[in-house]
Amino acid sequence: MAGKIIADQIEHSTAGSLDTSYVVNGSSKAWANIDGTGTIALRDSLNISSLVDDGTGAYDTHFSNSFSNIIYCALGCAKEASTGSRTSDVDRVFHPARLPFTTSACAWLAQRYDGIDADVDEAYPLLFGDLA
Amino acid sequence: MASILKVDELRGIASAGSITVTSEGGAATQSLQQGLAKAWVSFNATPSVGDSLNITSLTDSASGRPAANYISAMANDDYASAGMCGQGQTTNPSAVNFDGSYGMQSTASIAVVTSEGSDSKRDYALTTILVHGDLA
């Protein structure tokens, strides 16, 4: 049988105390490690139900549990292909695409620093905010 | 009246590593462990740690190639991470990046590349890294 504790604050014997609102509000609500080349796939994730390949460098992450609003925080990084070389190529950036967030999905875009859209070997989206 | 839970360790009943929390809206529950950051660090160009969680040391392989070593190892290298860097410049964009040649995630550490848009690697006054995933 599952136990349930309702508390406003957690206090450690030596490390201090924390309002439980920080636990709920401060936890990531979704994250993923995406294989972004070829047939894209999730290596590991939290609260991601599916991925959509939206073109070169473009990925859509769909959430298992929706956010309560579209005012959430999204950030990410990417790792370029293992065959890539910093001596012959430029870095990748991975960021939320210039599309409106929705409560059920977020669109992302990976680009080279010179502005060219590019698939990435691995992409790591992280999202914080309020779940519905 | 606010309720205070005094405890040094939280464990799930059915599974020690699994505790759920109710969402802000009350419509969903989510794993507490999965949502928590497993490591974060803020460091300067030396590199020297400003503050951190689960970071035992930094390794300076070369200019623009810092690595952070974990106290408690990750369960695998399939975790998610992000970072930023900068030092108040307004001309060139800068970013923490992961490169197939240099920047790698492992269970014991995370190595990144900090560089400008011109692709030149350099150390920055402030670099931050955030890691989410599964601890071993």
Average of the residue pLDDT scores of chain A: 87
The largest β sheet of chain A comes out as: 4 strands, antiparallel
Gyration radius over CA of chain A: 18 Å
Q: Helix tally of chain B?
A: 1
Most extensive chain interface and residues per partner: A-B, 59 and 52 residues
Structural class of chain B: mainly beta
Major sheet of chain B: 4 strands, antiparallel
| Total count of strands of chain A | 10
Provide a brief overview of the structure:
The complex is a heterodimer of chains A (132) and B (136). By secondary structure, chain A is mainly beta. Chain A has one helix and ten strands.
Characterise the protein shown here.
The complex is a heterodimer of chains A (132) and B (136). Chain A has 132 residues and is mainly beta. Helices cover 5% and strands 45% of the residues of chain A. Chain A contains 1 helix and 10 strands, in the order E-E-H-E-E-E-E-E-E-E-E. In chain A, a hairpin with a 3-residue loop joins strand 1 (9-12) and strand 2 (16-19). In chain A, 36% of the residues are buried. Chain B has one domain (37-132). Chain B has a 4-stranded antiparallel beta sheet with strand order 5-4-12-8, with no helix packed on it. Chain B has a 3-stranded antiparallel beta sheet with strand order 6-7-10, with no helix packed on it. In chain B, strands 2-3 form a two-stranded antiparallel ribbon. Chain B is elongated, with a radius of gyration of 18 Å. The chains are: A mainly beta (132), B mainly beta (136). At the A-B interface, strand 1, helix 1, strand 3, strand 4 and strand 7 of A face strand 1, helix 1, strand 8 and strand 9 of B. Strand 1 (9-12) of chain A pairs parallel with strand 1 of chain B, so a sheet runs across the interface.
